[in-house]
Design brief:
Strand content: 15-25%
Shape: globular
Distance between the termini: 32 Å
Number of helices: 16
Bound molecules: fe (ii) ion
Strand order of the largest sheet: 16-13-17-12-11-18
Radius of gyration: 22 Å
Helix content: 25-40%
Largest sheet: 6 strands, mixed
């Protein structure tokens, strides 16, 4: 059975194509339209998918990641009249519409290695649910089954709280939460501020922000205390679910909080879906139709570019050894917000000046640290990692053991470590680059950041490669 999953209409639209238990394609609209967080499925993405992935004897079934009419009841209740009564095409083009949190849960469970689990979903808002938990299992036919255990409903929302904080400190809500998270490491605990936030989270509808409600405070302290409160609340959710004695699968936009993830899941059997925001629910919606456990050894499912040749890999390492940054656009694009080596900008992580160099290229805020990509077998020597976490998707911030990779070490001595295993050679060139780099330098790590022009989505195709090279004068290797 071939199924198309759609997530669109709010922010960061995406399409996923499933054929039984196999992901044929999964990609973000923004990478094709070049409009950051494009909320609609653009023509370029539709064209790329149609024909290439939708073939077969029967027309594909189409699944949508939420229930638009139920969402409208919430919008009308919340006084968002314009959105609630907007004249726009609704669900008629979809064969199925699934509950927003159920789509998150399906992506997390059916991509996980578990056959019996509880799902924890935490986001800003779906239709009405903002937090939910689900019992997930497969029946004797191997079809996924979901039973809802519990939920918290709008307007109480941890995700909306974090976005309101992001807005309060002058950043873009629903987009720049990761900067708030990075900024938190620079702040200090403030008891009154923390308690005021706790009160707001429990009793106030934060959908329209909290600009006036909080006392005057520095942005870094606001970020620190908001992060700390978020971690505390999440710990409560996780502890409650451990009572079921099953692994936890975790999704929803709040699961992108890699600082919280690093602290909460050290000792727990779990799986965090690598694309846990709404874009990832395109895959979740399709999975609810196929019902099968999905084969997922990686998250490279987008626009296809060939891998690099052996000669190109050597050239890449030559440039890295000369102390320069170098771009890679090879293999299928990442499905998810992190560059995992197929659309990445790399450089030597051992000197501080390289951090400044990449910051200059990317013109980004000092608050946001860069990630280290490391040969998996070396990770334990440099980072405090645990066997309970899979570090292949940059989902956990962990303490560093050494100062060796100073350009990827945050102010609190942590790093969002990315391990690269040797089974990725068929889908990514990063492992070969790291191996060659290690052979020549004895360093198993590279600084890895996403390959994008500031304010634009990640590089997708050959045209973007040229645009990036022209804009920054940085060589990008692409075998297209
Ligand atoms: Fe969501």
């Amino acid at each position: 059975m071939r199924v198309l999953g759609f997530s669109e209409g709010y922010h960061d639209a995406a399409v996923a194509v499933l054929h039984n238990d196999e992901i044929l394609f999964a990609g973000h609209s923004e990478r094709f339209s070049k409009k950051k967080n494009d909320k609609n499925i653009c023509n370029e993405l539709s064209k790329y998918v149609q024909g290439r992935y939708t073939g077969g004897l029967l027309p594909p079934r189409i699944a949508f990641y939420e229930r638009p009419f139920i969402k409208r009841t919430r919008q009308i209740w919340a006084g968002q009249w314009k959105k609630g009564f907007e004249r726009r095409r609704l669900s008629y083009k979809y064969d199925y519409c699934f509950a927003h949190h159920l789509s998150h849960a399906a992506a997390a469970f059916q991509c996980s290695p578990f056959t019996d689990a509880v799902a924890l979903i935490v986001d800003a808002i779906g239709e009405w649910d903002t937090v939910s938990s689900w019992r997930c299992s497969y029946d004797k036919n191997g079809d996924a089954q979901y039973v809802k255990l519990d939920s918290i409903r709008y307007p109480t929302s941890l995700g909306l709280f974090y976005s309101a904080i992001t807005d309060r400190i002058g950043l873009k809500p629903m987009e720049e939460e990761y900067i708030t998270m990075g900024m938190a490491a620079f702040g200090r605990p403030k008891l009154k501020l923390y308690n005021d936030m706790k009160e707001l989270l429990a009793h106030k509808n934060l959908h329209r922000g909290m600009r006036r409600e909080l006392p005057k405070e520095t942005n870094v302290n606001i970020a620190y205390n908001a992060q700390s409160l978020t971690e505390g609340v999440l710990r409560g959710f996780v502890n409650k679910l451990t009572k079921y004695g099953r692994p936890i699968v975790y999704g929803g936009g709040v699961a992108l909080n890699s600082v919280a993830n690093g602290k909460l899941f050290k000792k727990i059997d779990h799986y965090i879906f690598p694309n846990p925001g709404d874009a990832g629910s395109a895959l979740g919606a399709a999975a609810l139709v196929t019902k099968k456990q999905i084969k997922t050894d990686h998250m490279f499912h987008g626009y296809h570019l060939p891998l690099l040749s052996v000669g190109q890999i050597k050239e890449v390492v030559d440039i890295l050894q000369a102390g320069e940054a170098v771009g890679i656009a090879a293999g299928k694009a990442e499905f998810g917000p992190r560059a995992l080596g197929n659309r990445s900008l790399l450089c030597d992580p051992r000197t501080k000046k390289n951090k400044d160099m990449v910051n200059k290229i990317k013109k980004r805020q000092l608050y946001r640290p860069f990630a280290p990509s490391i040969l998996k077998e070396h990770a334990d020597a440099y980072f405090e990692i645990t066997s309970k976490c899979d570090y292949s998707y940059m989902q956990y911030v962990v303490p560093t053991k050494t100062r060796d990779f100073i350009a990827t070490r945050h102010v609190d001595k942590s790093a969002r470590v990315h391990t690269v295993s040797d089974d990725l050679n068929e889908v990514s060139s990063l492992r070969s680059i790291l191996e060659c780099w290690y052979e020549r330098t004895g360093c198993p790590t590279l600084l890895n950041t996403s390959l994008n022009i500031r304010g634009k989505p990640m590089v997708n195709d050959e045209k973007d490669v040229n645009a990036f090279e022209e804009e920054y004068g940085v060589k990008v290797f692409c075998n297209g």
